[in-house]
Amino acid sequence: MKKLTSTKLKEFLVYLDEIRGYSDLTIKSYDESLKEALDYIEIIQEDKHIVFNLMPYRIFVSSLNPKTISKKLSAIRSFTGYLNDNGTKVILKADESVKVAKTLPKPILHKYIVEALSHCDLFEKLLVTMLYTLGLRISELSSLKVVDISSDWVRVLGKGNKQRDLPLLPITKSLLDEYFSASNQKKFIFEKNGEKLSENSLRYIIKKVFRRVGLKVTPHQLRHSYASELLNGNASIADVSELLGHSSMATTQIYTKLGSALKQKNYNTAHPLCGVNNL
After folding, report:
1. 26: Cα separation from own chain's centroid
2. Which of 59, 94, 122, 251 is deepest in the core (most CB within 10 A)?
3. Helices 110-117 and 122-134, interaxial angle, to 10°?
């Protein structure tokens, strides 16, 4: 039974890569989580189905924080969903959800991004600017090709191989033109010896850029900054959701909480009774 499950796991990882279009980092995370889980899950063959009893594994991971446990259980559910869709009937036991507190993303203030850009060379400036003005995932930026750039738009291949077109700001287009004239990119925007730079390489550069101004920043924080600036500038949540490549507006709605201070300020300015002490 373990051997069968191991074979199916390999097929599942290929499916995530070739059909769902997941990033290498995400696939690696699934692989590690599932291999760990399968060492502990009790697998029972019954009449016409297999039972995955998660209790031994849940005991093993019980000391971890709820968010980590939830991600690990989610990987198991995705795998069993794949098995059920492909002819292997699996029933999960002890599969209760874990309550995870919603955490707000931490965007970087515009003034700090501008300050960091003032200390960048051309390569670094383009990298930060593209993340901040296009709201890309680091996996999307790493895979971005020269042919994906036009005079006004960038075509992005996102999660699940979904394409979206993003408007290209003049400042970003100007940096791209300067960068292309100073380098010899053959296929990818960011490449070395004809091969695209890895996501980890790009993450390291971002980290290095912001360390110069005393900040610890991830590429995903720049994506958060992009989203929150748009929403605080009164862009509709539907448009921001589409620009980010979210499959559901529910995913985008967490960003609306970031603008609460601005909402309060607008309310105080707009309501006719604000500033009136007595009726």
Report:
1. 10
2. 94
3. 160
Q: What pTM does this model have?
A: 0.61
Pick the catalytic residue: 58, 72, 125, 137?
A: 137
User: Which structure tokens are listed for 254?
Assistant: 């967490």
* Phi and psi angles of residue 53, each rounded to the nearest 5 degrees, phi first: -90, 110
Is 220 annotated in the active site? yes
Closest to 23 measured CA to CA, from 143, 105, 132 = 143
Digit-by-digit pLDDT tens for the chain (279 residues) are 666 688 889 999 999 988 888 888 889 999 999 999 999 999 888 888 899 999 999 999 988 888 899 899 999 999 999 999 998 899 988 887 766 666 656 789 999 999 999 999 999 999 999 999 999 999 999 999 999 999 899 999 888 788 999 999 999 999 999 999 998 888 999 998 888 999 999 999 999 999 999 998 999 999 989 988 888 888 888 888 889 888 777 667 666 655 555 556 566 667 676 655 554
d(CA 85, CA 15): 12
Give yes or no: 223 in active site: yes
CB-neighbour burial class of residue 170 (10 A; exposed 0-12, middle 13-18, buried 19+): exposed
SS3 191: strand
> For residues 135, 20, 31 and 55, what is the CA-based torsion angle, rounded to 10 degrees?
100
Which amino acid is it at 201? S
Record the tokens describing residue 249, joined without a space. Answer: 């507006």
Output the CA angle 54-59-65, nearest 5 degrees: 105
Give the residue among 262, 246, 264 at the shortest CA–CA distance from 254: 246
Is 137 known to be catalytic? yes
Phi and psi of 172, rounded to 5°? -70, -40
Among 58, 72, 125, 223, the active-site one is: 223
Catalytic residue (one of 71, 145, 159, 207): 159
